[in-house]
Design brief:
By secondary structure, the chain is mostly helical. It has one domain. The chain is elongated and about 60 Å long. Keywords: Membrane, Signal, Transmembrane, Transmembrane helix.
Length: 78
């Protein structure tokens, strides 16, 4: 019974993460708008923004993982 539940859970995760929708990416527009030597500061700001947007999900996952770890550790001690 437990194996069946795990299989369903993994299947849902695979479908959820495996299914992708077509996204209208703005990369070509950003490149055209930021190309050239005159826009170096603006290009650096866009790159910093991209890095900022990439880091936030990892920090959230790490915080949730740490919270779950603490809860399980506290439960074992009780």
């Amino acid at each position: 019974m437990m194996l069946k539940n795990k299989f369903k859970y993994v299947l849902v995760l695979v479908v959820f993460f495996g299914y992708s929708l077509a996204a209208s990416a703005q990369c070509a527009m950003c490149r055209a708008a930021l190309s050239g030597d005159a826009n170096k500061e603006q290009a650096q700001a866009v790159n910093d923004g991209i890095v900022y947007l990439m880091v936030i999900p990892y920090l959230l996952v790490a915080a949730i993982g740490y919270a779950v770890y603490r809860m399980r550790k506290k439960k074992k001690l009780d």
